[in-house]
Amino acid sequence: MLGWAAGRSLDLGGDLRKFMPAPRTPAQHLLMDELGEGPGARLLLLSIEGADAATLAAQSRALATKLRTTPGIALAANGDADLSAIPERLRPYRYLLSDGPSAGGLGSAALADQLQQRVADLGSPMASVIEPVIERDPTLEMLKLAERWQPAASPQKIEGVWFTRDGRRALLAVQTGAAGFDPKGQETALASIRTAFDAVRAKSPTRLVLTGPGAFAVEVAGRTQHEAGLIGMVDSICFVLLLWVAYRSWKAPLLGGLPLATAGLTGLAAVAFCFDGVHGITVAFGFTLIGVAQDYPIHLFSHQRPGVSPWASAKALWPTLGTGVASTCIAYMTFLVSGVEGLRQLAVFTVVGLGSAALAARFLLPALIDPAPHDLADSPRLRRWWARIERWPRLGVVPGLLLAGLLLAALAFAPGAFWQNDLSKLTPIPADALARDSALRSELGAPDVRYLVTVDARDVESALQASERLIPALDDLRAKGAIAGYDLAARYVPSAATQRARQSRLPTADVLRHDLDAAVAASPFLPDAFEGFIEDVATARTAKPLTPRDLAGTPLASGVEGLLLPRADGATALVTLTGLTDPAVVAHALQGSGAQLMDLKEASESLVAAYRGRVLWALALAGVLLIATVFVALRSPRRVMRVLAPMALTTLLILAVLRLAGVELNLFHLVALILAAGLGLDYALFFDHAGDDPEEQVRALHAIIVCSLTTLIVFLLLGLSSIPVLRAIGLPVALGVAANFVLALLIVRHDSAPVSAAAAETPV
């Protein structure tokens, strides 16, 4: 019932911005907008290869034509003039979007020259393109606009479409309607592109190469899902086999999974009921963090013995188990004050999940456990193991402090940066795929994804006017080679002031008819062939200026929306740059213009640093609360220090090993440290709980061995993953499991007391 209720209200999302702190600087605000909604996040780069140029060009045209009418595809460009970019209802505006007609391009001489060119065009292969539009557009202004709206630094053309410099691959740029953080939308768009290509290529040997943020996101999601499924399957098999071997009972694996299943269902239900949507990362990380719940039934199984009911055994273990659970939940609960919605979701998931798993182990599981089990304290092998362990030297205060000092010194003097602020270095995308993407971007002249020019203004019209004033400076930078090209919203929708100025220069209907009659008389066209043309110019003279809102539902809308960002208190116009070679020169050229060159890489690093700061403060608070919780439970400063020491030393050990291996620490390593600390605290608490009773010591040893092996297996599997995020969690936790186990034995274990006959009969 709980799973059904959670499923009905569960709405998985993929917007990574929910796992980022609120942006504070203008550059950070811009970064967050661009990551999700910007044109760079929506851009897919395509190449068709494997045939001669004529075949590739034909398939490029056919594919572009199909994609322009495909739902979910906002724009498909391949170098050919796409007249569909201007819908019929907006075509009269061509005389306001272009300066040519209003600057003398509609005089009698210019019209006569244009009509002579159209005569030639109608006798050429272009006739099929020109004939449908010539009656209303004899100057082909729509075609000129479509060509002008091609990327500023376009690749070479072969047979009218884009090709790579070597002429072996046809190129296309596709902009999706789905945002960059919409994995389902990106997956749908990719499927549509591949379906369209399969229809276009028929039986030809050509192949499609597809790159870009959306393609990479879908590929990574698929690989992550595959590896997570494989790891989950292997871990489940190992868990079942290990529990069967450890307890010689087919019921143990089945019952052992119940608290973990309870944790997952209750955690999901709590997040689904408390938040509007559940982030996919919350689910992925949440199930990793609640994995410690599988230890709860193991402790219950290992501490069972004849003559003591499962209820009594669970009650005796509850103070120790409850302390571990409370400490772990307190650590995760601090994420509630992090100010990051994704971390708040993670806190609710783990706290509710672990709490419900512990309660299930305490109050439900005893009813299902065999009341007459084999006492593991009677195992000769375990007794021999414990006898050998008792001969191990203890790690006293002085050696412990020396070890801590050495680890701190390793941290302080390890070469390289301590923190990793560049999340792009965690990308699981293969190097050859990144190289292919970089090559296609270079061939297509795609905009630089690091630098943007921003212009802030009080409203959209002011932003368009301000960006238009930048055009001379940008043209000068292009002439000097500082940039290869640029793009801005005013290329597609000039400001209302510019459009009104062009309107004022358009000829009246009488003047245009007089000049057109003179031009037609010197051509083979009929006298009334261009009445639609006169109507369109008359409409343009009196029309209201076109605004970005008027582009809604057209292929131009997505591009303009990505370059013009309205806000409640104003608007920001963006200028994307292509082939930027010297940021300092560009920044200097923009001085005094009101525009600013933004470095999004710097903004991303500052945002990551802010995020890390919030997490570290939360962890510091968690540490204080954890110490207080353990002190309340144990009531002895000496015992508290002994229990916390393995966890503290293991944390230092993990950090030192990572730094000495040249690893720069990132946010996922912090998650691993939290996991390792929680596991280490449990090991130490149960060794402390065993006291000096040799039988309880053997039972605790068995429980912790089984717990550590089940945990070690799953995190070693994560550490072998090809996904860097999973490796960043798996390897440190695996190291932490081993170190916590050994250090707990060296620091926390008690010397065994002699066992009398009476004591042997007394339940613990």
UniProtKB/TrEMBL annotation:
Subcellular location, record wording: Cell membrane
Membrane topology recorded in Swiss-Prot or TrEMBL: Multi-pass membrane protein
Keyword list, A-Z: Cell membrane, Membrane, Transmembrane, Transmembrane helix
Classification via Pfam families: MMPL
Native organism taxonomy: Bacteria, Pseudomonadati, Pseudomonadota, Gammaproteobacteria, Lysobacterales
Keyword Kinase: no
PANTHER family xrefs: MEMBRANE PROTEIN MJ1562-RELATED, MEMBRANE PROTEIN YDFJ
Originating species: Cognatilysobacter lacus
GO cellular component terms given for this protein: plasma membrane
Domain of life assignment: Bacteria
Protein's recorded name: MMPL family transporter
Chain segments annotated as transmembrane: 228-247, 254-273, 279-296, 317-340, 346-365, 395-419, 615-634, 643-661, 667-688, 700-723, 729-748
Alphabetical list of InterPro entries matching this protein: MMPL_dom, Mycobact_MmpL
Domain Membrane transport protein MMPL: 109-394
